[in-house]
Amino acid sequence: MSKKPSLAAVRWLNPDEERAWRAFRRMMIAVQFGTARDLATLGLSDPDYEVLSTLSERPGHTSTLHEQAAKMGWSRSRLSRHATRMEARGLVRRAPDPADGRGCYLVLTEHGLDTLKNAAPAHVASVRHHFVDRLTPEELTTLEHIARKVAGTAET
């Protein structure tokens, strides 16, 4: 939204919309908190896991800082600071981007790949526990459709 509406112009939520919104927020918080807590027992944060898993799927286990930041919905500077911490732990390394003198590539290290391989089974179990196994296959299909619609990526 670019312009703040006047109080008279606000379309307030009706009781059904309010309940749905609050339920959605509680669901997101519960799932994120549970999976983040479980990842922490493995020595990883949720963003650590996102960076590692995304890089593992890329050709050469490499992505530009710009592409990775866009995928995570982060600014380049925020991801750069996080990557610095991951680099200090040997999970990723940076390489110059010849196409962008100010940019760099993030490269998954062998240690980072091993860390991901060791964490993945526990993370999948956590996702199942906190999310997937609580829903029926039909509910998962409906939720996927809703999520794509809200995110603006619905398939036509």
TrEMBL record:
Record-level Gene Ontology MF annotations: DNA-binding transcription factor activity
Biological process according to GO: response to stress
PANTHER family: MARR FAMILY REGULATORY PROTEIN, TRANSCRIPTIONAL REGULATOR, MARR FAMILY
Entry superkingdom: Bacteria
Pfam families linked to this entry: MarR_2
Record domain HTH marR-type: where: 1-152
Protein name: MarR family transcriptional regulator
Gene3D superfamilies assigned to the protein according to its UniProt record, in alphabetical order: Winged helix-like DNA-binding domain superfamily/Winged helix DNA-binding domain (1.10.10.10)
Signal peptide positions on this chain: none
